[in-house]
Amino acid sequence: MIKRLQRKFVVIAAVCLLIVEFAIIGGINGVNIYQTNKNADDLLNIIIENDGRFPEFDPKGMKHDKPQDNSNSASPPESKKPDKHRGFNEETKYQTRYFVVYADSNGEITKVDTGHVAAVSSSQAIEYGKSVLDSGKTSGTSGNYRYKTGDTDKGKIIVFMDCRSDSATKNRFLLVSCAIGAAGYILVCLLIIIFSKRAIRPVVESFEKQKRFITDAEHEIKTPLAIISANTEVLEMVSEPNQWTVSIKNQITRLNGLLKELLSLAKMEEEKPALTMVDFNISDAVYDAASPFITLAETKGKKLTIDVANGLSYHGDEGAIRQLVSILTENAVKYADEDGEIIVKLSTSHSGKETDLEVSNTCKEPPQGDLTKLFDRFYRDDSSRSRSKGEKKGGYGIGLSIAQAIVRSHKSKISCKAENGMMIFTAQLK
Questions:
Q1: How confident is the model at residue 397 (pLDDT cuts 50, 70, 90)?
Q2: Can you tell me the distance from the alpha carbon of 48 to that of 65, in angstroms, rounded to the nearest whole number?
Q3: What is the pTM of this model?
Q4: Which of the listed residues 75, 153, 313, 323 has the most CB atoms within 10 Å of its CB?
Q5: Where are the alpha helices (DSSP H) in 282-359?
Q6: What pLDDT digit, counting tens, does each position of 293-311 carry?
Q7: How far apart are CA 265 and CA 375, in angstroms?
Q8: Are the C-beta atoms of 47 and 54 separated by less than 8 Å?
Q9: Element (H, E) at 395
């Protein structure tokens, strides 16, 4: 149980860390891609606004429009407008490789300008322009080029900008960030594994104290019970047995049974239960363990049917599996409706890799809520599983906990469901 708790702690911490890393790396790369594309689009807009050319930038980051002759004007000269694209400078136009395609209002290409790029000829530029015009898109990517269209007085202008360098930078940034993230993730996971024992130490100490308490309580309670039992027998020898002495003996038997089941559960939940794992005929084991309950069911007006596939073999602890069958069958007989039916079924799973043990009983009013709580210690459902029409159900509320511990010790799963008026417990034995 401790190892299972440690593994669960490590897995949860590793999954949470992985989600956080994905969010961080994805966010950083998303921002980087967005900013890179935005810068490219801003450059394209500048070129489009200036009819296929870069404007002049002054050293202070101020953009000059074409010089105006204000000698004959009474109004003062227009002030310089701050460049809204602050990431660009006077060298930007020499670092940017682009070509421009012009088209008239009818969509016919009238001119191309490939003077700012070496990788594209005029004929290739025309092909790029036709492709964009035919697609009807105003922006996007075509091969190694990012493009954007604009409208002019004479028609359309399409600017293509070489983005190979930006793409390579984005890819490198993605690879580097993923590599650093993976290395950090592995390192943190190793630290989680190393320090996980310290993290769950309070839980381990509490569990160890609980096991010691159960063992100590069993030894401490046995002696008073033995004395009470002996005194009760003396009283019955001195005087005739009466309802008081019979009640005392019944309660002694009940407490002894409770102590026995608590010890059994504590042993099953240890890290390495003392199980003898051998190959055995599970078909015979299930039938032998369930068949004694046929008479018990009949005395209560119920019917028990055993449907076991012949010749099935299983590798596990035969005694523990027989105890599992007894617990589930006794539970089904106890809680089945009056004049109800109990079915014990053993078969091979659809995949052929598991052996399914299914114990079901009729139940018109199944427990409500989370059915997995039925496997909790001392759990009692207030409605159908406690009392039915005044009938005492008995039990200690830990039988199903023992069944779950047995199944888990075989690295298998047990589940419960209510459907079609039946309560069904299924142990998938691997």
A1: low
A2: 14
A3: 0.52
A4: 323
A5: 282-290, 293-299, 318-335
A6: 998 899 889 999 999 999 8
A7: 12
A8: yes
A9: none
